[in-house]
Amino acid sequence: MSGGNFSVITVPGLYGSGFTHWQSRWEKKFGYERAELGSWHQPSPKEWEDALSSAVSSAMKPVVLVGHS
Q: Dihedrals φ, ψ of 57, to 5°?
């Protein structure tokens, strides 16, 4: 999927979707990028919004976001 006409960015679930989580496995298997949102223990909606905006803006192609939670 990645490498075609679009980039895939995963948006992790609660506490960052650990290394055995399906998102982490997809990132490794398909080369997807992860949006690093910041602190899970003291979430800041503005910080998360800025991090996601930055991830999308830095992509070289249109973006498909894959998230849950």
A: -65, -30
Kindly provide the residue ranges of all beta strands, DSSP E only, lying in 1-69, ordered along the sequence: 7-11, 33-34, 63-67
What pTM, to 2 d.p., does this model score? Answer: 0.82
Dihedral sign (CA 18, 21, 24, 25): positive
Collapsing DSSP to helix, strand or coil, 15 comes out as helix
pLDDT in tens, 17-30: 888 999 999 999 99
Task: Tell me the one-letter amino acid at 46.
Answer: K
Q: What strands lie across the sheet with 33-34, from one edge to the other?
A: 33-34, 7-11, 63-67
Burial category of 64 from C-beta neighbours within 10 Å (exposed 0-12, middle 13-18, buried 19 and up): middle
25-44 pLDDT, tens digit each: 999 999 999 999 888 888 89
